[in-house]
Amino acid sequence: MFASVNLAQPANPAQILSASEGKEKITRPDWSGEDCQVLEHFSQSGPMILVALTENASPAAKRKAAAQVARLSARLKLEGIILNDGLGFMAREVGEAFGLLAWQPGILKGSGSKAPDLKDLLVWSENSDHRRELDYGLSLAQSANLARTLAFTPPNVATPLAIADQAKEMAEKVGLTCQVVQGDDLEKENLTGLISVGKASENQPCLIILRWTPPGSEGQAPVVLLGKTITYDTGGLSLKVNNGMKGMKGDKSGGCAVLGTMHAVATLLKPSFPVVGLLVAAENSVSANAYRPDDVITYRNGVTVEVTNTDAEGRLVLADGLIWASEVEKAKEIIDLATLTGGVITALGKTFAGYFCENAELRARLEEAGQATGERIWRLPLDQEYRDMMKSDIADLINSNPNRLAHPIQGAAFLAAFVKEGTPWAHIDIAGTANTDKDQDAYVPGPTGYGVRLLAEYLGRG
Asked: Which residues are catalytic?
């Protein structure tokens, strides 16, 4: 939609006006003034975009109007806009919408494709407070776009260790520290989930650790963000069928969201408390070395798991991350994101991500962040009956119950066994929300970066 979007004063801008500011300037039969209506108008003083929205509008209405303004600006090929004071209350949403629409899906287009005719855009407000909000929205969109690009990158490029290299490069630029646990160190740390899932692939697995430790916070228990980072999922020996592998490069979207959030932590949020991002990265492939249904895995916390389905691999690597967060990082609280189950799409479609959380305070704060950003979550149950479904006759747990009942809950019930008792924890299944197949609001078809804005809002509220 745009080649780039930057905060700077344009030479010949269009004006974005509220309905009250522009009502005397136009008389058109197609202008109703109804809430969220967005209309272009051309006057002697230049182009205008009129927005029917009031200051008490809901976050959803502001996002909807901002996306319409951004799309209209792209269609009109505007090169500069000024947000007038009457709409300063939605400056952050405007910044986000323009920033998100600047994401380019054709990241690997070569000489066989014609470059799209896209314009650079300058956005501005004469009000310094509104300018700061515009800048915040643009910066947050940049972090989300980082996650989208990585999620969209194909598996022959975005291997586990290639993602680790990108994490190191990003950490050095923005002031994070990065540690990568790989090779023999995986054995030393007894990260058996990553070892088992990744051993069939020539692309070796790893645990990527990004840390934000501001001055004075040394020794404090961190907030830990954990992301499933399966760079490609064939299903392993429980092979996916009926073209089910197509698009499985997106199975790393949870980890990509954590990477994008850590970028926002270092460049935008800069919280006074420590934050740790964990990416459990592996490729679930097929070879003579592949782990098998009927294998039993023993984790570093002593829990044993009978593998019943190698296509339920995400929870096996997340278990390593949860143990690490509990034992090594000594987390204050843990939030994990994962494209874990098709069942959550059946239950909730692409409107909400399903989440599981038994801590009332953590639930409330996450849901508030979801409403504020539009990355909404819907709580699903995690009763003992579901946990009992995951018990094994020969080990402690099975990784998947063949009956397929309560499919998304099975994953959460399994993961609960790897969280230290008393630690606030939320598991967010983003399988339905990590990607869109149509133009929608500020998104083009492809990855949404879901989770970056949700977690950034959550962390920004302290």
From this structure: 240, 315
